[in-house]
């Protein structure tokens, strides 16, 4: 588990997300508390519950991005779910426990990749030996035809190994045996709400049906990578992977529940309101701490960090059932974004949109230059359209840039002009008609 200080965590988040200082501080403390918990005596460790967070703010202000970057920073399994996809038992929807199963699946993949990387050197050696075996028969036959003897096989093998390592044989073709599961043609229907069975149909049938061996002809370079992956998979101890993945899920997993405001019960108490409250009551035991059965065994949710988010335009956090409110002690409100923030989003972050589009068109040999006045004009346009129509925050910038560069992106491969400068006039000319027509801007921007 990483031991970044809260200040270091905020600093790292600042590289990708503009503003939202309060939310960054809250998640930074929550992450640091996980590390602190690991340092306390064992008898107290299990008593310290994670401080779950509710982020309140309109769409497109960075709620999901903060949680996603936090998980990446912590090297923790992370899943995002939408609360509105869950319903109480008896209604069409997903079983709430599926979010924990999804988290375990992701942790398995993470740990398996790490373990495969740890044995890669050995896997590369084994793959090299298999490649030499595939290449050697042809070479041995050639040597024999030239009057050589089989005693020279080892000498030939050493020469081949040297050529292989130098990349001299990369374009030569070999036949590699691959195994595929030979399954009968059939459809499998899984009723909704039965995810708790934790059955992977393909795995279950994998033991019943034979594997079909297929020979594929491919270049040595491609075969080497395939053989390395195959050998690494054989070397990885899946029991160890499952144990580590379950532990990582339980101790450092993060579940991001979006649109939690959509299941907040408002005044009433009948019809859809009953369903919303039912979803909350289904989610409650998982957030409180329970054991969920997965295909890799039981997983405890006591120390998984839950980050919930919602716009809360119609409802408010106090509309959630009291028990669920109590499980989210940290509340942070994210600020709406305006023209000034949009300018910063376009240019400041490591993954700034202007950099992304410049890099994309550079692949076509085009040097795209955004002048400062163009950036301000794009930001002003985004703020204006957000005010007039639905406020979708920074997501509006994506829509505007796509429309702005639509023709350029289409013509890029055939364009003779290699340097293109985008200024404020270019932005106004390309978007003037759409921006001025409010009905049109609702559909296009």
Q: Regarding quaternary structure, how should these chains be classified?
A: single chain
Protein structure class: alpha/beta
Distance between the termini: 43 Å
Spans where pLDDT lies below 50 across 5 or more residues: 143-147, 186-199
- How many E strands? 11
* Sheet of most strands: 5 strands, parallel
What order do the SSEs take from the amino end to the carboxyl end, as H and E? HHHEHEHHHEHEHHEHEEEHEHHEHHHEHH
- Chain-averaged pLDDT: 81
Radius of gyration, in angstroms, nearest whole number: 28 Å
Outline the fold blueprint.
Layout: H1 6-14, H2 21-39, H3 42-45, E1 53-56, H4 63-74, E2 78-82, H5 98-118, H6 120-145, H7 153-166, E3 173-181, H8 201-206, E4 211-219, H9 220-235, H10 238-252, E5 254-258, H11 272-288, E6 291-294, E7 297-300, E8 305-310, H12 322-326, E9 330-333, H13 339-347, H14 353-362, E10 367-370, H15 372-388, H16 395-404, H17 406-411, E11 419-422, H18 424-436, H19 438-444
Helix pairs in contact: 1-2, 2-4, 5-10, 6-7, 6-9, 13-15, 15-16, 15-18
Summary, kept brief:
The chain has 445 residues and is an alpha/beta fold. The chain has 19 helices and 11 strands.
Description of the molecule:
The protein has 445 residues and is of the alpha/beta class. It contains 19 helices and eleven strands. The chain has helices at residues 6-14, 21-39, 42-45, 63-74, 98-118, 120-145, 153-166, 201-206, 220-235, 238-252, 272-288, 322-326, 339-347, 353-362, 372-388, 395-404, 406-411, 424-436, 438-444; strands at 53-56, 78-82, 173-181, 211-219, 254-258, 291-294, 297-300, 305-310, 330-333, 367-370, 419-422. The chain has a five-stranded parallel sheet with strand order 2-5-8-1-9, with helices on both faces. It has a two-stranded antiparallel ribbon with strand order 3-4. The protein has a two-stranded antiparallel sheet with strand order 6-7. Strand 6 (291-294) and strand 7 (297-300) form a beta hairpin. It is flat. It starts with 5 loop residues before the first helix and ends with a helix.
